[in-house]
Amino acid sequence: MYTSRSGGQQGQQHLNSRNNSHNKKSGMHKTSDLFEGLPFGKFVLFLNGGRNCLRVSAQKYNMEYEEKESDGPNNNKKLSIFLNGKFVTSACEENIKATKAQAFVNALAVLQKNCYSIKPNPLRDTIKINKSNNQVVCGVVKQKADNAEDKKLDASNKGYKMMKLMGWTGGGLGSKTQGREEPVGYLLKNNRAGLGNEGGKLDRNYFRQILKNYVESEDIRELQFEPTFTKEERAMLHEIAGRFNLKSTSNGKDEERRLVISKKTISNEQILTEILLKNNPNYIDKYSVQVPESKARFYPEHTEILELDM
């Protein structure tokens, strides 16, 4: 793991309090133009994929990322990094391998200081959908990417807290409120009898309504249809997902086969808008944001340094 700068959270509480007081006195307010005055424009650093994240982040904005070698002191090679022709940083160490590693660390520090950084949270909420006795039952689990370990959405979770503030009071799913107490019941809205089809048949119209409710919502969590659904039902869901422009992938073999349905790629600008300007709990749960230093006075709760996992 590379850490771009040192310092961590020491003194953060005092700094946030001071910034909040300053904002009130000077009348500062958040602006919808998140990128105003930033030296690298609308470049956003997406902290995923190790050292390749700088190049990939630049490609998303059709920006040219360059690493240029030149002669340095003591016959060592110097490496300079440029973004769209603008100098970012340089390094010169005893050998080229060390030089490249240090140049990357330096560039990460400079860009995190001057640009927005986004990092996917290691634990994500997933909506698991099961079929039991010809009824559909939904529930939220918190799991690590590529990990089947589940963790209940509880009061320590940011998204949970914000849902509570927005008026959600909990309540299980099912005719007797069985199951987990999480905000996923909207998926079954307008399906007769709520859980399961009143006529006793889970047909195309029933599955279509579930995905239609998902598309029309602001929910960005994945839908994971468990192996309790038949091969024919998963094929039907896959076809319906395509019609709604949703992404669908299958994983597992035979009796462990699952279908995961999700919304297409979300832009960095949308993530920043939903978190910084709208405090959207669905996005807050899925992503962490670090603002550039020049924006810290507007968003003191998003100044913690995000580390890149290597």
UniProtKB/TrEMBL annotation:
<dbReference type="InterPro" id="IPR001374">
    <property type="entry name" value="R3H_dom"/>
</dbReference>
<protein>
    <submittedName>
        <fullName>NF-kappa-B-repressing factor</fullName>
    </submittedName>
</protein>
<feature type="domain" description="G-patch">
    <location>
        <begin position="155"/>
        <end position="200"/>
    </location>
</feature>
<dbReference type="Pfam" id="PF01424">
    <property type="entry name" value="R3H"/>
</dbReference>
<feature type="compositionally biased region" description="Polar residues">
    <location>
        <begin position="1"/>
        <end position="20"/>
    </location>
</feature>
<dbReference type="Pfam" id="PF01585">
    <property type="entry name" value="G-patch"/>
</dbReference>
<dbReference type="InterPro" id="IPR036867">
    <property type="entry name" value="R3H_dom_sf"/>
</dbReference>
<dbReference type="GO" id="GO:0003676">
    <property type="term" value="F:nucleic acid binding"/>
</dbReference>
<feature type="domain" description="R3H">
    <location>
        <begin position="201"/>
        <end position="265"/>
    </location>
</feature>
<dbReference type="InterPro" id="IPR000467">
    <property type="entry name" value="G_patch_dom"/>
</dbReference>
<dbReference type="InterPro" id="IPR039146">
    <property type="entry name" value="GPANK1"/>
</dbReference>
<feature type="region of interest" description="Disordered">
    <location>
        <begin position="1"/>
        <end position="30"/>
    </location>
</feature>
<dbReference type="InterPro" id="IPR034071">
    <property type="entry name" value="R3H_NRF"/>
</dbReference>
